[in-house]
Design goal:
Distance between the termini: 65 Å
Strand content: 15-25%
Helix content: 40-55%
Order of helices and strands: HEHHHEEHEE
Strand order of the largest sheet: 1-3-2
Largest sheet: 3 strands, mixed
Number of domains: 1
Oligomer: single chain
Shape: rod-shaped
Length: about 110
C-alpha cells in the first residue's frame, strides 16, 4: 500500500512538472530608454539589429520620435529616437571593437 501511494505521488509530481514545462514566462519589466543609451549596451545593440527592421521603422518620415519595442533578457525595452539617430544606427558598423584591458599596468587589446 505504501509503495502504491509513493508511485502515485511521484506520478502526480511528474504530471505537474510537465504542465509547467510548456509555460514560458513572459517579460517581467518594461524600460523606456533613448537610442543613445541603448547603443552603450552591446547585447542590446545586437538584439535591436535582430528584432527591428529598418524598412518598417523608417518607412514614413514624421516629426515625432520613432519607437521600437525589443525583448532582451526577459525585459521589454521601448527605445525611442529621432529619424536621423535611427538612420545613423542602421548605417553604423554593428561589430563592437574589443575593449582595452589593463594587465600589470599595461593596456593591451585582447
Amino acid at each position: 500500500m505504501k509503495a502504491t501511494k509513493f508511485v502515485l505521488i511521484i506520478a502526480m509530481l511528474a504530471f505537474v512538472s510537465m504542465s509547467y514545462a510548456d509555460e514560458k514566462p513572459g517579460p517581467t519589466l518594461t524600460i523606456k530608454i533613448s537610442l543613445k543609451k541603448a547603443i552603450q549596451n552591446p547585447g542590446l545593440v545586437k538584439t535591436i539589429y535582430n528584432q527591428v527592421s529598418e524598412r518598417t521603422l523608417l518607412a514614413n518620415e514624421h516629426n515625432g520620435p520613432y519607437i521600437a519595442k525589443v525583448n532582451y533578457r526577459r525585459v521589454v525595452y521601448i527605445i525611442y529616437g529621432k529619424y536621423e539617430e535611427w538612420r545613423n544606427f542602421f548605417v553604423m558598423d554593428p561589430i563592437i571593437l574589443p575593449l582595452k584591458v589593463k594587465f600589470n599596468g599595461c593596456s593591451i587589446n585582447p
